[in-house]
Amino acid sequence: MKCLTEINFTNNKLTQIPQQLYSLPQLRKLYLARNNLTELPEGALGWKNLKILDVAGNRLSVFPVGFQFLTLEELFFEGNHLVPFTLMESVQEKEVLSLKELSARLILQQSTNELSVVSRALPAYPELQDMLSHWGQCALCSQPFLTTWLECVQFINTRKHMGMKSSQSVPVRVLLCSYDCFNRDDHQYYGLVRL
């Protein structure tokens, strides 16, 4: 099965992508059109050889973090419920992070330094390691965080950012760690509001 290069799951009423698909390193063509998919998980980024992705006619709203790094040649996504590119004014108040989040961020920062006490002590706490294994990284400041704090989208141009022949704008999910980062002027990220 690891040698498969093309899979067609069109019209199968899929609500999620089968886990087995993420372990197909040779996959070049994937047809998932006209199903009931609401998201493409971040595991999709493991398809390093994927050239054609057809997700038309699903219920996607955004593409996963890092989607623009896939080396696709063709992308079909019409007929989804993609986030529209409309700007809205909003007021962002300074947030107060929970003690759990503050502690997790400190531990995550310290765990990358092999000389720190935290880094050396962490293996003695497997439950803590498991909890921290689901951390994210801020797209702007690159600092780690535990809880998905601010979900944003970046509208990328498929020709400019992915090297595709067609020029289309697609929303790609981006995660930020705080309103301090969101309020910076040096980015093109837009906050998502789920209604």
Number of beta-strand segments: 9
Supply the number of structural domains: 2
Helical amount:
10-25%
What's the level 1 CATH class of the largest domain? Alpha Beta
Structural shape: globular
Major sheet attributes: 4 strands, parallel
Q: Which structural class do the helices and strands define? A: alpha/beta
Low-confidence stretches: none
- Measured between the Cα atoms of the first and last residue, the distance is 41 Å
List SSEs in N-to-C order: EEEEHHHEEEHEHE
Give the radius of gyration: 19 Å
- State the oligomer: single chain
CATH topology of the largest domain: Leucine-rich repeat, LRR (right-handed beta-alpha superhelix)
CATH superfamily of the largest domain: Ribonuclease Inhibitor
Give me the CATH architecture of the largest domain, please: Alpha-Beta Horseshoe
Strand content: 15-25%
Mean pLDDT across all residues, rounded?
Answer: 87
Strand order of the largest sheet: 1-2-3-4
Number of helical segments with 4 or more residues: 5
Q: Could you list some keywords that capture this structure?
A:
5 helices, about 15% helix, Leucine-rich repeat, LRR (right-handed beta-alpha superhelix), Leu-rich_rpt_typical-subtyp, about 200 residues, about 20% strand, Leu-rich_rpt, single chain, four-stranded parallel sheet, three-stranded antiparallel sheet, alpha/beta, 9 strands, 2 domains
